[in-house]
Amino acid sequence: MSVLLTDLFLTLLMVLALAAVRVRDLVGAVFLLSAYGLVMSMVWAGMGAVDVAFTEAMVGAGASTVFFLATLLRTVRTERARPPRGRIASLATALALGGLLVVAIHEFPAWGDPGSPASLHVSPRYLSEGYRETGAPNIVTAVLADYRGYDTLIETVVIFTAGLACWLLLERREP
Amino acid sequence: MIREHDSVIVRTGARMLVPPIQIFALYVVIHGHGSPGGGFQGGLILAASYILIGLTLGRQELRRRAREGVLLALACLGVLVFALTGVATLALGGALLDYTALPFPGGGTAARSLGILVIEIGVAIGVAGTLTLIFCRLAKAGEGEEAP
Amino acid sequence: MIDQLTYAAHHYAYWVYVFLLLVGFHAMITHGNLLKKLIGMNIFQTAVILFFVATSTKRGATLPIVPKDAAGTGAAAAFMNPLPHALMLTAIVVMVATLGVALAVLIRIYRTYESFEEDVIQARM
Predict the structure, then answer these.
(1) Local confidence band at B122 (pLDDT 50, 70, 90 cut-offs)
(2) pLDDT tens digit string along C100-114?
(3) Which of B41-55, B125-139, C4-18 has the lowest mean pLDDT?
(4) Within a 10 A sphere around the Cβ of A102, how many other Cβ atoms?
(5) Residue in A59, A144, A166 nearest the CB of B137
(6) Choosing among A11, A47, A102, A139, which should be mutated to test the C contact, i.e. which has the most C CBs within 10 A?
(7) S-S: B116 plus which of A48, A69, A105, A145, CB 3.0-4.6 Å?
(8) Is residue B146 in a domain?
(9) Is residue B3 part of a domain?
(10) What are A144-158's pLDDT values in tens digits?
């Protein structure tokens, strides 16, 4: 039953993504993107990735929408309709890329296979030894903060750098 | 200009909602080892509470509660907490971010659990400060040529 | 026919991922409005995260939060793979940070050239 619901949400995702790209009113496109982020977080929660869904619900449906709207406050509201120039070439490129990816799909493991290569090497060890070694039942937090702590350290620096860059870019200099 | 909302219902509702949101953010950070959550999620919820203040009570109110200098200092503090924990583990003889070298009572597993908690608090402070700072800057800059 | 339907049902998440990837990619290339390009980039990024989350699922498994008495390697098939989830958490937060910087650059572009359209900006440069 939940697989059916997840598939329904996946179909809704395709519709929302197409709509967010095609709508010319930018505020409307931003709100469609917000709905897309919310449905995406529900899809991930349905697939069992609750930490990721938690973060995407905050980010995709919350923070990024507010950032977009803050940018659109006194700037542009609608996209100008362009004459169709170069559409055929870009569509052909996109379809060629899509063809390559579809060929690659054949090689993917079946959905939900516990023996897929991604689940085999070090991941079972994290699941079985994680609580005993780190004292954290939430294995994702244990992996993020303990086993893969270097990635989290550098990522915090990246976020800080992005905030610093945003702060410096928008300094108001008196002429 | 993001100004104060006209309706008294929206303003009062925001004033009532922000403290429970912040307490929930603290809960998500501290209980991140046992339930879905952790530093990033808690930091995002904290930033969302300040963005809610900015959207409903106006940008002046947000500036009064969270100055941009303080937000920048919080962002730096988050990175510093994380990096200083790593330096402390190096100085006490272990590898970088090897929490068993930290002088917490209880031995290996308890030290790692407390090390995870310290890290998550640092990450939450850093993420909250950075995202609120980005929102303040974008909101001020998007207004155009008005005086701040 | 049942074989094809089962195959399609097992791989539906991957098809949606390819479609979303192409929508985001095409939007980034075709549309001249810089904000539309950012929306396309956001769709592209979340599609890649969908792919990673879809490959980390296991049929009949539950969230990767172990009960406090789980032990032994037999337990690994009952929980979703936690490693891609940790990587994707990093990816999402970096996504919002780079979105903040991109919007700051966009505001600066608007201050100088008074437009978001790519060809207008190139003409005024």
Answers:
(1) very high
(2) 999 999 999 988 888
(3) C4-18
(4) 12
(5) A166
(6) A139
(7) A145
(8) no
(9) no
(10) 998 999 999 999 999
Q: Report chain A residues whose CB lies below 8 A from the CB of B120.
A: 141, 145
Domain boundaries, chain C: 2-59+79-124
pLDDT in tens, B54-87: 999 988 889 898 888 899 999 999 999 999 999 9
How many domains is chain B built from?
Answer: 1
Q: Give me the CATH code for the C2-59+79-124 domain, please.
A: 1.10.287.3510
**H/E run at residue C97:** helix C82-113
Q: What is the ipTM metric for this complex?
A: 0.90
Q: How confident is the model at residue C2 (pLDDT cuts 50, 70, 90)?
A: low
Q: Is B36 on the interface with C (CB under 8 A)?
A: yes
**Distance separating alpha carbons of residues C27 and C33, to the nearest angstrom:** 10
Compute CA distances A69 → A28, B135, C70, whole Å: 10, 10, 46
pTM value? 0.91
CA-based R_g, chain A, Å: 21
Q: Which two tokens stand for residue A104?
A: 């690659």
Close Cβ partners of A134 (under 8 Å, ≥ 6 residues apart): A142, A146, A147, B109, B112, B113, B116
**Portion 104-123 of B in contact with A at CB < 8 A:** 108-110, 112-113, 115-116, 119-120, 122-123
CA distance C89 to chain A (A): 6
- Which of C27, C31, C89 has its CB closest to that of A51? C89
